[in-house]
């Protein structure tokens, strides 16, 4: 691979595991991790790390030049629930960081960008089941508005300036190594921690709130696959729908109960329920499957056993 990779937001939930995977593929010294604060020991010790604010354009340029970076994965963002509490801060972080990276590619400093979008780009007027790749998009959250706007800009930079930017609309990502921060889908991780520690969980989403979800390994595989696909196969330059599993808190609780038989769940929906209601229940991802061969591996059963085992180990 010519040139190094920079991950911005490397210490977050997806960033941590993505950095470790890319270091495994390309070599530790080829993948520069950066974040506003230090992260997991494994990440800090396995390769180069820089403290970097995703909105600090001069500093991003400095790091890119220092390590001769050619690819950037921009993983820093404020997620749906947190963004509702700090709308302008979320907008500035989510948009400024994207423009800094798009402009680096436009001026020819870097060759390729990965930028994650989300199911949050959809809204209450979007068809809820098997949401198509191209459909009505009227997001009602700050996070969703920033992701949808970002998608438009990615496509614009591709069409107008030939910027090789690739993106997927992540569903809720489930993992045990690094905790998520401030999302609506976070209940699907908290539930495992509470089930193991206390055999009970109070869900902030209603029992029938169905949302698209995915186990981390599948999300990482999709990210690596779309970045490695030949450019002509990446036909959608806004962002691809991506799907694996879809379930409600009630269905997940029943699956957990197969392993922890006394597990109890209670429901106290808060402001995040309204966000969940505005999002799809399931996603049609045929475009990703046809264009660059996306396939998921983890179903509900496999995800649940992997999470119970993984969370169990981290709590020991
Ligand atoms: C969130 O809940 O905000 C995120 C997402 C679906 O993008 N996990």
Automatic annotation (TrEMBL):
Annotated family: Belongs to the NAD(P)-dependent epimerase/dehydratase family.
Residue ranges constituting the NAD-dependent epimerase/dehydratase domain according to the UniProt record: 5-241
Single annotated GO MF: L-threonine 3-dehydrogenase activity
InterPro entries for the chain: Epimerase_deHydtase (IPR001509), NAD(P)-bd_dom_sf (IPR036291), NAD(P)_epim/dehydratase (IPR051225)
A single BP term in Gene Ontology: L-threonine catabolic process
Protein name, entry field: Nucleoside-diphosphate-sugar epimerase
Domain of life, source organism: Bacteria
One of the Pfam families matching this protein, by short name: Epimerase
């Amino acid at each position: 691979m010519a040139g190094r990779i920079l991950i911005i937001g490397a210490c977050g939930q997806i960033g941590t595991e993505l950095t470790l995977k890319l270091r495994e593929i390309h070599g530790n010294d080829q993948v520069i991790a950066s974040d506003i604060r230090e992260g997991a020991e494994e990440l800090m010790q396995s390769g180069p790390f820089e403290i970097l604010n995703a909105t600090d354009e001069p500093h991003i340029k400095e790091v890119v030049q220092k390590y001769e970076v050619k690819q950037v994965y921009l993983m820093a963002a404020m997620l749906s629930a947190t963004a509702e509490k700090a709308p302008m801060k979320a907008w500035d972080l989510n948009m400024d960081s994207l423009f800094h990276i798009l402009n680096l590619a436009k001026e020819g400093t870097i060759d390729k960008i990965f930028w994650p979008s989300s199911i949050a780009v959809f809204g209450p007027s979007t068809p809820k089941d098997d949401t198509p790749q191209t459909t009505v998009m009227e997001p009602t959250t700050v996070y969703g508005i920033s992701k949808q706007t970002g998608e438009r800009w990615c496509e614009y930079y591709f069409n107008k300036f030939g910027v090789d930017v690739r993106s997927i609309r992540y569903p809720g990502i489930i993992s045990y190594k690094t905790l998520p921060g401030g999302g609506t889908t976070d209940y699907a991780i908290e539930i495992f921690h509470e089930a193991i520690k206390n055999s009970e969980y109070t869900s902030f989403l209603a029992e029938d709130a169905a949302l698209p979800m995915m186990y981390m390994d599948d999300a990482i595989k999709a990210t690596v696959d779309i970045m490695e696909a030949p450019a002509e196969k990446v036909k959608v330059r806004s962002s691809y729908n991506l799907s694996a599993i879809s379930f409600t808190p009630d269905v997940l609780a029943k699956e957990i109960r197969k392993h922890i038989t006394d597990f109890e769940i209670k429901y106290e929906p808060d402001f995040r329920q309204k966000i969940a209601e505005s999002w799809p229940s399931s996603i049609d991802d045929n475009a990703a499957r046809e264009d660059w061969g996306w396939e998921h591996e983890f179903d509900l059963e496999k995800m649940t056993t992997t999470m119970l085992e993984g969370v169990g180990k981290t709590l020991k």
